[in-house]
Specification:
By secondary structure, the chain is α/β, with parallel strands linked by helices. It is built from 29 helices and 30 strands. Helices cover 37% and strands 21% of the residues. Helix 4 runs antiparallel to helix 6 and helix 18 (551-570) crosses helix 21.
């Protein structure tokens, strides 16, 4: 008896080399308890029922031959999967746990509770011996049981874990991936419960799961036990943290956060027959974020530590104890999608057709899919799903996998970026829109639809089969250039998508896009909310700023996090942020805007750009813009952010704007802050030497410069043929500006579409000695190649 190996082992006695003995999940827990508690990662204590115990269970009940017979019948087509699975599970359920195994589990359970005969609440989790390997993730294939109390419940839960090795979905998964069913064993992990039913729980990845951007930690959080988040049954809070700045504890590099719906939570049940239950969450709790900034940063640092220890990105489940307030890691496994993708090829998708938007939700991936909508309320309807259809359902779980593999795209009403539907869609390379509320009723069954995830963070489902383009980019094949090629970015939600492009930074980030799409409210309506007269606007603002004690903080935080995502995408390369350049008619369209904007005959030449920043009518709004920029640079630590002033008409105006910046904590030169000016008014070129004394660089706005040089309204269709940025007058001004700026040791860039459309214009800019050209991501390849060709020609013609 003494020589027999134990069927139960404390988790601290196993590590990553013990997968064959205790399965991937338990091996990982033991590894963390042994190696990572020293760096502060907390993992609940527990024990593992070994794979040998599972094999002893089979042997004691003479089950191996019966399982082998049933599986052979399935393989030869003698029985269907459902029948084979039902028969195998029935045989396992009849089995009795060996007496020695029961005794060892009882002893370990009593020790875990710390007192004889105790009834500690524990989580009982399956841990397959081939689980969570990089080449085959078995996550979600077997069962987990929460809030299990007393030895009888623990033993019963262990038996049910053994049975779950042969769920229909687990059998199908192993068949597809070539695993021998009888060579895969099951260990069971028994861990002390974290009372997250009184607080919250969730998942996190040490990589951005949508784009594969490796420099962020993505955290999802919901109230209650974490099973609803893992299952994708609710819409969680979401946080994105920039990893390179986590070492500096004076910084708060949370570059994005989004409050989820969190309509329900799983909590402890009231009896042994109901160990857990799901309840509705009140409006006040839903309005608040689950985690504080400090908790987000602590989890992110743990994710980085785990990634460094395992040498690859990780997928982690965490929980917060509502009694102690402590955070715990309850599972960790290798991330199995983006971290395995090899090669440097990118595929760019662009929607070219137009159609009516039917629903919207979170975009998963960046692809586009077209097919007939198949709305299903249950996986039991799988027989009516046709290959290439668009799956529309409330949520998915592992049972849906066979259907999902046949889909052109997936749409779910519930779930966040780490839900089952999102994870599987990424693995399958399918576009998916998750959290699309009302999708099952809004998308007619059988109607042809287009699912677009190529338009940023939000995904859309359109009526009809719309045209779209696909473009492959091999970044390794792109030439190097002396002229910096940068990106124009407006939408923060797409910034991380292009991280693999070898861009030299961002030459133009448009603040007004973030205000329009994310903030949605006129800054003066927030700065002077008490003066706002429009009741509808007041009501809309109250809803948008729910959870914020100070409405101005809503503007600052939302704008700062939008800017931060763009700045982080290219860090430490420069990211040039243009301060707001709405026209008065555009500002008026923002919520609460009409009260603060005059009517102008020609807004293009009116109160815009620099002239607003120091004026009484917008001074308070500009202060909010500056506060957001200051937060990105100082609190988040993204000091690669460069400020750029648009439409600065005179040298006197330049001085007034620089003074306004300094008054708002953004003094040029402090903490490395550079301030550029847009060169889009002829006076910027004529007096380039004086502007160069005040600014660190110029960015040529070729559209406005052409408009003002040629005297042509750029939006006038009747004069469109004469509007030409390569006109000799415009070229002469651009060439003169570059020469003067370089004489004063100032950089010059151009941000505009012209170099993308006209290779000869790109050659002119290179010949003139421009320092950088900034283009849209989908034009990057063509412009990079055109610039390389122009540089080769310049070199060849040099004396």
């Amino acid at each position: 008896m003494g020589d027999e190996p134990s069927y139960v082992v404390d988790l601290t006695e196993v590590g990553h080399d013990d997968v064959a003995r205790v399965g991937g999940k338990n091996a990982s827990l033991g590894e963390m308890l042994r190696e990572l508690t020293a760096v502060g990662i907390r993992v609940p204590s527990g024990f593992a029922v070994t794979a040998e115990a599972y094999r002893a269970f089979l042997a004691a009940n003479d089950l191996e031959d019966e399982l082998a017979t049933r599986l052979e019948e399935l393989r030869e087509g003698g029985v269907e999967l459902v029948e084979a699975g039902r028969s195998i599970r029935a045989a396992l359920e009849r089995g009795e746990l060996p007496e020695r195994l029961c005794d060892e589990i009882a002893t370990a359970y009593a020790e875990l509770d710390g007192r004889e005969g105790g009834d500690a609440d524990v989580a009982v989790r399956s841990s397959a011996t081939a689980e969570d390997l990089p080449e085959a993730s078995f996550a979600g294939q077997q069962e987990t049981f929460l809030n299990i109390r007393g030895i009888e419940q623990v033993l019963d839960a262990c038996r049910r874990c053994f049975v779950s090795l042969f769920t229909d979905r687990a059998i199908a998964y192993r068949e597809e991936h070539g695993f021998d069913h009888l060579q895969v064993s099951l260990s069971v992990g028994v861990q002390r419960m974290v009372r997250s039913d009184l607080a919250g729980a969730g998942v996190m990845f040490s990589i951005d799961t949508d784009t594969g951007f490796p420099r962020t930690v993505l955290i999802n959080a919901a109230l209650g036990l974490g099973e609803l988040v893992v299952a994708g049954a609710i819409d969680p809070d979401e946080y994105l943290v920039f990893k390179p700045l986590l070492d500096d504890e004076s910084l708060t590099p949370i570059i994005a956060r989004k409050r989820g719906g969190k309509e329900r939570r799983m909590v402890y049940g009231s009896s042994t027959d109901e160990p857990t239950r799901v309840e509705q969450v009140g409006d006040e709790e839903r309005a608040a974020f689950v985690l504080s900034d400090d908790e987000v940063l602590q989890l992110a640092r743990w994710a980085v530590a785990l990634e460094e220890h395992y040498g690859r990105p990780v997928d982690v489940e965490w929980a917060k104890d509502g009694e102690s307030g402590e955070l715990f890691v309850v599972q960790a496994r290798p991330e199995t999608v983006h971290s395995q993708r090899a090669g440097a090829a990118l595929t760019s998708y662009r929607l070219t057709g137009e159609g009516r938007r039917l629903v919207a939700g979170l975009a998963v991936g960046d692809a586009i899919g077209v097919g007939r909508a198949c709305t299903m309320t249950s996986v039991e309807e799988a027989e009516r799903f046709e290959d290439g259809a668009v799956l529309v359902t409330e949520m998915t779980d592992p049972d849906w996998l066979p259907v999902m593999k046949r889909a052109a795209a997936i749409v779910t009403e519930h779930g966040g970026r780490t839900s089952h539907a999102a994870i599987v869609s990424r693995e399958l390379g399918l576009p998916a829109v998750v959290g699309a509320h009302g999708a099952t009723s809004a998308l007619p069954d059988g109607a042809e639809v287009t699912v677009s995830c190529a338009e940023g963070e939000e995904g859309y489902v359109y009526d009809g089969a719309l045209d779209f383009e696909m473009h492959d980019i091999d970044v390794d094949a792109l030439p190097s250039t002396d002229t910096r090629v940068m990106l124009n970015l407006a939408d923060p939600s797409v910034a991380l998508r292009w991280w693999q492009l070898p861009a030299d930074g961002v030459g133009l980030a448009r603040m007004e896009f973030i205000i329009d799409n994310d903030v949605k409210v006129h800054p003066m309506a927030l700065a002077r909310f008490d003066e706002l007269e429009d009741e509808d606007a007041r009501s809309a603002i109250a809803e948008l700023t729910r959870g914020f004690d100070d409405k101005r903080e809503y503007f600052v935080q939302t704008l700062a996090e939008g800017i931060a995502r763009i700045a982080a995408s290219r860090h430490p390369a420069p990211v040039v942020l243009r301060m707001s350049d709405f026209k008065t008619n555009e500002y008026a369209e923002l919520i609460g805007g009409r009260q603060f904007e005059p009517d102008e005959e020609n807004p293009m030449l009116g109160w815009r750009g620099a002239s607003r920043y120091y004026s009484d009518g917008y001074r308070d709004g500009f202060a909010l813009e500056c506060a957001a920029v200051r937060r990105v640079r100082a609190r988040m630590g993204l000091r690669n952010l460069v400020v750029m002033i648009p439409f600065c008409r005179t040298v006197d105006e330049a001085d007034r704007v620089l003074e306004a910046l300094a008054d708002n904590g953004l003094e040029r030169g402090d903490d490395g802050l550079e301030v550029y000016v847009m060169a889009e008014v002829p006076s910027n070129v004529v007096l380039a030497d004086l502007f160069a004394e005040r600014f660190d660089g110029f960015s040529i706005g070729s559209n406005d410069l052409t408009q003002l040089v040629l005297g042509i309204d750029r939006d006038n269709e009747a004069l469109a043929e004469q509007f030409d940025e390569s006109d000799p007058a415009v070229r002469r001004l651009i060439g003169g500006l570059i020469e003067t700026a370089h004489d004063h040791d100032r950089k010059v860039g151009l941000c505009g579409q012209k170099p993308s459309d006209d290779a000869s214009f790109a050659r002119f800019l290179v010949q003139a000695g421009i320092d950088s050209i900034s283009v849209t991501p989908d034009s990057f390849t063509a412009v990079k190649e055109a610039i390389a060709a122009a540089e080769r020609k310049r070199t060849a013609s040099a004396p």
